[in-house]
């Protein structure tokens, strides 16, 4: 069960990560669109798991690898944005959000019948 504090921090991180990816995308991830779909924060607020929806020229796993290479830079930019709201900037873990693929698969299965 997520506490109110965890939920507020997760929403703050989600909003700011979205803006960071939008700004970094032009230089570091050209031809790709990265959307932060959900963020979960651990109870101690030291780890944030960000689920990303990835679209574009680059294959998803390759793009996720590029994002993980830039993890420290992304965390620094996040820290510059939220340092007044939190005591410590959480470590970032990135995962591919495949819920849209799952929904599309279910739609395709339902259309066949």
Strand-helix topology:
Layout: H1 4-28, E1 32-41, E2 47-56, H2 60-69, H3 71-82, E3 91-96, H4 99-112
Parallel strand pairs: 2-3
Antiparallel strand pairs: 1-2
Structure, described:
It is a single chain. The longest helix has 25 residues. Strands 1-2-3 form a three-stranded mixed sheet. With 113 residues, the chain is an alpha+beta fold. Helix content is 54%, strand content 23%. It has one domain: K homology (KH) domain (GMP Synthetase, Chain A, domain 3, 2-Layer Sandwich). The chain has four helices and three strands. The mean pLDDT is 89. The protein starts with a helix and ends with a helix. The protein is globular.
Number of helices: 4
Order of helices and strands: HEEHHEH
For the CA atoms, what is the radius of gyration? Answer: 15 Å
CATH architecture: 2-Layer Sandwich
């Amino acid at each position: 069960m997520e506490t109110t504090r965890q939920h507020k921090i997760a929403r703050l991180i989600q909003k700011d990560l979205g803006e960071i990816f939008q700004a970094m995308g032009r230089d570091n991830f050209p031809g790709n669109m990265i959307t932060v779909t959900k963020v979960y924060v651990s109870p101690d607020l030291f780890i944030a798991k960000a689920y990303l929806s990835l679209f574009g020229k680059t294959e998803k796993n390759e793009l996720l690898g590029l994002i993980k290479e830039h993890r420290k830079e992304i965390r620094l930019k996040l820290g510059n944005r939220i340092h007044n709201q939190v005591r410590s900037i959480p470590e970032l873990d990135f995962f591919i959000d495949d819920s849209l693929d799952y929904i599309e698969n279910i739609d395709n299965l339902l259309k066949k019948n």
